[in-house]
TrEMBL record:
Keywords: Coiled coil. The keyword Coiled coil applies. GO terms for biological process: endosome to lysosome transport; intracellular protein transport; lysosome localization; lysosome organization; regulation of synaptic vesicle exocytosis; synaptic vesicle exocytosis. InterPro entries: Snapin, Snapin/Pallidin/Snn1. Belongs to the SNAPIN family. This is Biogenesis of lysosome-related organelles complex 1 subunit 7. GO terms for cellular component: BLOC-1 complex; BORC complex; synaptic vesicle. It comes from the Eukaryota. GO terms for molecular function: SNARE binding.
Length: 157
């Protein structure tokens, strides 16, 4: 039963004294703190600097907004330019669409031109072949057909 009694002895009060007086644990804690403290301090300083720069940026944006409002009031422009800007943007879009259509049409026309040229070359080649065949089969002096046959037989047909 003594073994069970020893395992039941897990009171926090009994262990508190051990935490305070453990030199190894204290040294380890100080070592970890000495490693982490510079990083944490540096991070904290950078966060402070970032927050300060954000505040300065917000102040500059506010002052710029005030200056722009003053300039806008001093100009007292009677025309509303936003409508004209919108019209220009819409016109630009339309020009781009038309340009794309024209480009695609030009590409199609180039393809058609190439097909026509190819077909013309085929027909020209066929005509050249037929004229060569025609000139080879008709004797120019006598206009006889098949001169090769008539010259081999010795008698004109």
């Amino acid at each position: 039963m003594e073994v069970d009694t020893a395992s039941d002895n897990t009171s926090l009060d009994d262990k508190t004294e051990d935490y305070c007086e453990n030199p190894t644990r204290d040294a380890l804690t100080e070592g970890i703190m000495s490693l982490l403290k510079p990083t944490v301090d540096q991070l904290d300083e950078r966060i402070r600097a970032t927050r300060i720069s954000q505040i300065e940026l917000r102040q500059q944006i506010d002052s710029l907004t005030e200056e722009l409002l003053k300039i806008n009031e001093s100009l007292q422009c009677p025309l509303e330019l936003d409508a004209y800007v919108t019209k220009l943007v819409n016109a630009k879009r339309k020009v781009i669409v038309v340009s794309n259509i024209l480009q695609k049409t030009q590409e199609r026309l180039n393809k058609i031109h190439q097909a026509v040229e190819k077909e013309t070359n085929k027909r020209k080649a066929l005509l050249d072949r037929s004229s060569m065949y025609h000139s080879a089969t008709i004797k120019p002096e006598t206009d006889e057909l098949f001169p090769a046959i008539s010259s081999t037989s010795g008698t004109p047909q």
